[in-house]
């Protein structure tokens, strides 16, 4: 619907490359995906909704990651 506008979809900062996010949020997104893979390896198949719900309650989860979690919770189709 909305094409590339060159702004992070979360914080509206300029994006650095062919991404939907600024470098900070792109890095957090990489960490989030790695984290989900790690949970799946450690615990078996973890539902994405479960992962997000637990992650957002962990004190060690960073603010950038929590912003991403909210973003994907609102628009789960963006997670692929
Ligand atoms: Zn951003």
Structure description:
With 80 residues, the chain is mainly α. It contains three helices and no strands. α1 packs across α3. Bound molecules: zinc ion. Residues 8, 10-11, 13, 21-22, 24-25 line the site of zinc ion (ZN).
Structural topology:
Layout: H1 23-43, H2 48-55, H3 63-74
Bound molecules: zinc ion (ZN).
The site of zinc ion has 8 residues, from helix 1.
Main features:
elongated, 51% helix, mainly alpha, 80 residues, binds zinc ion
Order of helices and strands: HHH
From the alpha-carbon coordinates, what is the Rg to the nearest angstrom? 13 Å
User: Strand content of the residues, in percent?
Assistant: under 5%
Structural class: mainly alpha
Bound small molecules, deduplicated: zinc ion
Low-confidence stretches: none
Count of beta strands: 0
Query: Mean pLDDT, as a whole number?
Result: 91
Q: How widely separated are the two ends? A: 18 Å
Instruction: List the total number of helices.
Output: 3
Main sheet overview: none
Helix content: 40-55%
Gist of the model:
The chain contains three helices and no strands. It is an all-alpha fold.
């Amino acid at each position: 619907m909305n094409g590339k506008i060159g702004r992070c979809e979360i914080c509206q900062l300029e994006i650095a490359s062919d991404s939907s996010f600024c470098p900070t949020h792109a890095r957090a997104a990489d960490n989030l995906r790695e984290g989900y893979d790690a949970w799946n390896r450690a615990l078996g198949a973890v539902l994405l909704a479960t992962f997000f719900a637990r992650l957002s309650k962990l004190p060690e989860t960073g603010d950038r990651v929590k912003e991403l979690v909210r973003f994907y919770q609102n628009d789960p189709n963006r997670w692929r």
